Amino acid sequence: MIAAGAIDHGALERNIDEVHERVHLAARESGRSAEAITIVAVSKTFPRTLVDEAYALGLSSFGENRVQEAKGKYGGPLPSDLRLHMIGSLQSNKAKAAIGLFDRIESVDRMSLVEALEHAATRVDTLVSVLLQVNLGREPRKSGCFPEQALELIDALIGADHLRVDGLMGIAPLLPNAHDTRPYFRELRLLREDICRERPDVDLSVLSMGMSGDFEAAIAEGATHVRIGSAIFGAR
Q1: Does residue 119 register a pLDDT over 70?
Q2: Are strands 38-42 and 104-108 parallel, antiparallel or unpaired?
Q3: CB-hemisphere CA count at 13 Å for 171?
Q4: Angle at alpha carbon of residue 85, lines to 82 and 91, rounded to 5°
Q5: Which end of the chain is more exposed for a tag (fewer CB within 10 A), N or C?
Q6: What are the tens digits of pLDDT across the range 16-35?
Q7: How many other β-carbons are positioned within 10 Å of the β-carbon of residue 153?
Q8: Model confidence at 1: pLDDT above 50
Q9: In this structure, are residues 233 and 43 in contact, taking their beta carbons and an 8 Å threshold?
Q10: Parallel, antiparallel, or unpaired for β 225-228 and 38-42?
Q11: Do 131 and 105 touch, CB atoms closer than 8 A?
Q12: What proportion of the chain, given as a percentage, has pLDDT over 90?
């Protein structure tokens, strides 16, 4: 990998090819189709020029952590098939700005944010795709609701007229061996199954889990979206 700011087109292309190969291999080993897995390229801190290069190389979904950074980076016209995901913790007072920028907000994790997003979406009469973020390791410094809080928040999202909950998002604890993250990803998949049994009318088809260091383990446990930054763009 080449450090941020120094990566060239050739290195970026090689990184993207390698990530695709790893996704295909992980999917095949778990009896799944690689076409069912979306790569969300985590472009936070990287310039728009690098995003444009990655898009030209075939990536179309990008993840950002901060509303203000994304606003400056993506303020101009975007390709019609480019999808922008909010994957970082979202402050309630940034709900209006986030709705105007992102195609999907993956980091909904508390009732006050559900209410703020619904209020903002109602004002502009738009339907917003969201994911419920679950704190898989119950880590105090990480965002996400605890699993036992998930059903209450899912009910709030179901009841919101301008929010559509499409699935769950989770971040596993950082462990020395990526294979050891599988139980956390399995927990998120099983939580989705439990919620769907309790609320059969809700479609939680998206499981956004796995990052550069552990996305193969996430794919083995059913990830539909993997959020990959350093393996594509290099170290920050």
Answers
A1: yes
A2: unpaired
A3: 21
A4: 145
A5: C
A6: 999 999 999 999 999 999 99
A7: 20
A8: no
A9: yes
A10: parallel
A11: yes
A12: 91
Structure tokens at 29: 């080993």
CA 9, chain centre distance (Å): 25
- Sole residue written with tokens 């291999």: 25
Q: Is 180 helix (H, G, I), strand (E, B) or coil?
A: helix
Q: Could you give the 3-state DSSP secondary structure of residue 136? A: coil
Domains and CATH numbers, the chain: 9-233 (3.20.20.10)
CB neighbours of 64 closer than 8 A, spacing ≥ 6? Answer: 42, 43, 44, 70, 73, 74, 84, 85, 86, 87, 88, 102
- In the block, tokens 């794919």 appear at 219
- The rounded percent of the chain whose pLDDT value lies above 70 is 97
Rounded distance, CA 129 to CA 166, Å?
7
Output the pLDDT for position 4: 44
At 178, the amino acid letter reads A
Of the candidates 88, 85, 19, 86, which has an alpha carbon nearest to the alpha carbon of residue 54? 19
pLDDT digits (tens, 9 = 90+) for 89-107: 999 999 999 998 999 999 9
In 83-136, beta strands by DSSP E: 83-86, 104-108, 128-134
The angle formed by the CA atoms of residues 15, 18 and 24, to the nearest 5 degrees, is 145
15-54 in b/e form (b: 16+ CB < 10 A) is bbeebeebbeebbeeeebebeebbbbbbbbebeeebbebb
